[in-house]
């Protein structure tokens, strides 16, 4: 593996000064010319999202399009929990959890 000094070769370090912008451009151009002479090409960065990330992004977009929540229903449930009348239907909860998992796997 080449060291940093070997990669630089005769390349001068790029510096930025507070002088005119022409001087800064000249220094940058010189650095680019040295890189071209040495056969070093710039590379474009690329990003690739996994299928799972794409699914999550799609769900986020779908959720953003839906209304956030029904505040009246939330208040009703809060009151039911506070007075002890709220009951959880375990079978219904389990079925909804399974449906959610299946939806995730199908998307």
TrEMBL record:
Domain of life of the source: Bacteria
Start-end of Low complexity biased regions: 15-27
Region of interest: Disordered: 1-57
Keywords: Bacterial flagellum biogenesis, Cell projection, Cilium, Flagellum, Repressor, Transcription, Transcription regulation
Domain Anti-sigma-28 factor FlgM C-terminal: 45-98
A Pfam family matched in the record: FlgM
InterPro entries: Anti-sigma-28_factor_FlgM_sf (IPR035890), FlgM (IPR007412), FlgM_C (IPR031316)
Function of the protein: Responsible for the coupling of flagellin expression to flagellar assembly by preventing expression of the flagellin genes when a component of the middle class of proteins is defective. It negatively regulates flagellar genes by inhibiting the activity of FliA by directly binding to FliA.
Family stated for the protein in its record: Belongs to the FlgM family.
Protein name: Negative regulator of flagellin synthesis
Organism: Salinivibrio costicola subsp. alcaliphilus
């Amino acid at each position: 593996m080449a060291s940093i000094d070997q990669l630089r070769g005769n390349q001068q370090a790029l510096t930025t000064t507070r002088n005119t912008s022409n001087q800064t451009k000249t220094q940058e151009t010189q650095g680019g010319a040295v890189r071209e002479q040495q056969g070093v090409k710039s590379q474009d960065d690329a990003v690739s999202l996994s299928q799972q990330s794409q699914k999550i992004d799609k769900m986020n977009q779908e959720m953003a399009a839906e209304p956030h929540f029904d505040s009246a229903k939330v208040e009703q449930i809060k009151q039911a929990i506070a007075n002890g009348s709220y009951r959880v239907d375990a079978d219904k909860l389990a079925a909804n959890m399974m449906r959610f998992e299946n939806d995730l796997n199908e998307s």
